[in-house]
Amino acid sequence: MTVEHPSKAVSYSVTVGSGLLEQASSYFNLDRKVLVITDEGVPTQYAGAILKCCSQAELLVLPQGECAKSTGSLELIWETMLEAGFDRSDAIVAVGGGVVGDVAGFAAACYLRGIDYYNVPTTLLSQVDSSVGGKTAINFLGVKNIVGSFHAPAGVLADTSVLSTLSPRLFSEGMAEVIKMAATGSPSLFRKLEECVDVHPIMSEVITSALEYKLDVVSSDYSEKGLRSVLNFGHTIGHAVEAASGGALYHGEAVAIGMMYTSSGQARRRIEGLLRKFNLPVKDAYSAADLMQYVRRDKKRRGSLTKLVCVDEIGTYEFRELSDEALMDLIQSHKNEE
Ligand SMILES: NC(=O)c1ccc[n+]([C@@H]2O[C@H](COP(=O)([O-])OP(=O)(O)OC[C@H]3O[C@@H](n4cnc5c(N)ncnc54)[C@H](O)[C@@H]3O)[C@@H](O)[C@H]2O)c1
Ligand SMILES: [Zn+2]
Fold it and tell me: Known catalytic residue: 113?
């Protein structure tokens, strides 16, 4: 299945299916110098499959985890390309999760003021979320995603067969982002997830629906004003829960909990049902006051109001701006209901 990015300003195709890695040269122009970037945690056969499709490739293996989104990685990437004589017509292929995609994309955005990069996302989170939309970034001085740019990929290959090596926990956290998108804008996908007995056989369809939704949202509002923030459903309180957990909870797990705070009625019950089905947590053990401390530090906050995406009915959403007092009440009353 191929999803075309619908905007006129940026155009690239995203192909979803099983066993695509071996055919990468049918989707990407690899007949040039190519730097394949991966990390130590990504099974080596995935970058290996891409390398086999290239005639003049270099391989760079970054360390695993958030620490790879660093200026050190950028220097390594640029050094490797300079030494191998990469020019503007050459390309980068990122093979990995959101970490590799973000740092490789940013390196490509800056090298010679922008060269092509292709994304081969290998986690579910990166297949449905970070590989499209064009955001690239590194962390700096302990601040996440603080330096980056918009640089759309030249193409994306989401090969569902790579999901077989993901830990169940990483798979579930990717499902949290899928549930987020289905809850705010795709009632049919939401129903499909509720009805399926085993999601694995329909992963291509699930990923394609999620990608179509994300691409639609980002293309109608490419640079994060207004509409794009629907993708923050579950994230504002989720980020606070994630920070309060001090790394114990994965991002997707915290987002799952965040969605519970910002949904109501039957929509909340259905979201909870899906979260449980995919082994995601639905509540946290932190006090409302603790969570508020972290909400106040949210970099997306403007003034003293917090903008929340709320879902009262599956498939629709509403933005609500809450004062700290109202937000504290919301968090506390949700806790009282549990
Ligand atoms: N650019 C965006 O729009 C955007 C959106 C969301 C998140 N992000 C970023 O994405 C990052 C998180 O991405 P992530 O969750 O993919 O994390 P990740 O890239 O760190 O991958 C998680 C772990 O899984 C391993 N891995 C990757 N593929 C695997 C596979 N197929 N089998 C087994 N192990 C595999 C990796 O080595 C890593 O240790 C964060 O840095 C976040 O800021 C970016
Ligand atoms: Zn997220």
Answer: yes
Annotated domain spans of the chain: 2-163, 168-337
Close Cβ partners of 236 (under 8 Å, ≥ 6 residues apart): 258, 262, 295, 298, 300, 306, 307, 308, 309
Inter-CA distances, 260 with 106, 107, 136, 254, Å: 33, 37, 29, 10
**Ligand 1, residues 66, 102, 149: which to mutate, most atoms within 8 A of Cβ?**
102
Contact call for residues 95 and 42 (beta carbons, < 8 A): yes
Q: Report the distance separating Cα 163 and Cα 21, nearest Å.
A: 13
In the residue annotation, 40 being an active-site residue is answered as: no
Q: Are 294 and 239 in contact (CB under 8 A)?
A: yes
Which one of 33, 151, 228, 334 is the catalytic residue? 228
Angle at 62 between CA 45 and CA 148, to 5 degrees: 120
pTM equals 0.95
Sign of the dihedral through C-alpha 26, 31, 37, 41: positive
Give yes or no for residue 238 CB within 6 A of ligand 1: no
Residue whose structure tokens are 């504002």 = 236
The ligand that comes nearest to the alpha carbon of residue 41 is 1
Any atom of ligand 1 within 6 Å of the Cβ of 177: no
Quote the ligand 1 centre to 317 CA distance (angstroms). 27
CATH of 2-163, one of 1.20.58.1370, 3.40.50.1970, 3.40.309.10, 3.20.20.70: 3.40.50.1970
pLDDT tens-digit series, residues 214-256: 988 888 655 555 788 899 999 999 999 999 999 999 999 999 9
Tell me phi and psi for residue 89, to 5 degrees.
-90, 0
Q: pLDDT tens digit string along 107-137?
A: 999 999 999 999 999 999 999 999 998 999 9
> What CATH fold (topology level) applies to the domain 168-337?
Dehydroquinate synthase-like, alpha domain (1.20.1090)
177 is catalytic: yes
